[in-house]
Structures are given as structure tokens and as C-alpha cells.
Amino acid sequence: MRRSARAVIVVSFSTAIGCQIDEPDPEARGPDLPDEVFVALERDLGQPRPALERRLAAEAIATELTPALRDQLGASFGGAWMNDDGSALVVGITDLARADEVRRAGAEPLLVRWTLGQLEAAIARAPANVDRAIHAWRVDAAGNRIVITADDSYSPALSAFIT
Predict the structure, then answer these.
(1) Relative to the CA of 115, which of 11, 91, 125, 150 has its CA 20 to 30 Å away?
(2) What is the C-alpha separation between 7 and 10, in angstroms, rounded?
(3) pLDDT (tens digit, 9 = 90+) per residue, 92-122?
(4) Which pLDDT tens digit goes with each residue over 26-84?
(5) Order of strands, edge to edge, in the sheet holding 7-11?
(6) Pick from 79, 147, 69, 148: nearest CA to 115
């Protein structure tokens, strides 16, 4: 019986490279969901309904802010994601001078090395035909990196893929 170990490889690619947003409504509500959905979320996430309602409201605000911030920050935009507890939108920026813009929009800025555009361009340059040992590759905006899933982290196929 042959067993293969699955490894997740993280690769960084090296490449060099205002509008005003209205303040989000702090009383904004998330989507209206049936009670059964909240019961399932409470069970699965281990959070009480009020915390889930706050989280869903924060995510609803984030879906409105993200496209506007992406446009406003342009080449400085490093991606957007929710923080660990789901209470706030985090926006990656490559230019620390843009941090106040992000804060004024209602999000938390985080200085990152690569723009989202650079990471997406690296993914777009990946070959279409890869060795079967490489299963997937994707942008991890919160980690500001490319993640590659492969059978073996020491595979020659993986080395060829990332060079």
C-alpha cells in the first residue's frame, strides 16, 4: 500500500511595483436569516446569536466597503478579509501613507509586501498543464502569499512549478 503525504507549500513571488467613502452605519444589520440558520450557526460556531448578528452585520458592511477601497487604493491594495473574530474588515496596503484612508472608511489597515494585483498576476502566469503531484494554487490575501497544495513538498515537479 502506497501512502502519500500531502503538503501545503507557501511561495512568495518577487515583483516590484481619492475618492471619499461614506462612513458605514454602525447600526447596520446583517441579512435576515431564519431562526433555524441561527440555531445551526450557534451550534457549529459555538457563538451566541447576538455575536453572530454582529458578525453578519460586520460582513455585510465589509462587502460594501471592499470594492470601494479596492478602487480608492488602486496599486496599494493588498486584499481584504475579515479579522479572526469576524468583527472587522482588514485591508492590506503596500503604502503605509494610505492607512488613514482605510481607517476613515471603517476598516483596519495592515501593511503587506505584495499587492493583490501582483499575487493575482502570479497565479495567472501559472502553467495550465502541471504535474499531477500539484493539486491547487491560490491567493491567500490574509497571508499575502500564494499557497500551493502538493503531494510532496520536496517534489521536483513542485520545484519546477515555482521557478
Answers:
(1) 150
(2) 10
(3) 999 999 999 999 999 999 999 999 999 999 9
(4) 455 567 889 899 899 999 989 899 999 998 999 999 999 999 999 999 999 999 999 99
(5) 7-11, 145-150, 134-140
(6) 79
The C-alpha cell of 69 is what? Answer: 477601497
Distance CA 136, CA 96 (A): 32
CB 83 within 8 A of CB 90: yes
Q: Cα–Cα distances in Å, from 65 out to 27, 60, 158?
A: 15, 9, 37
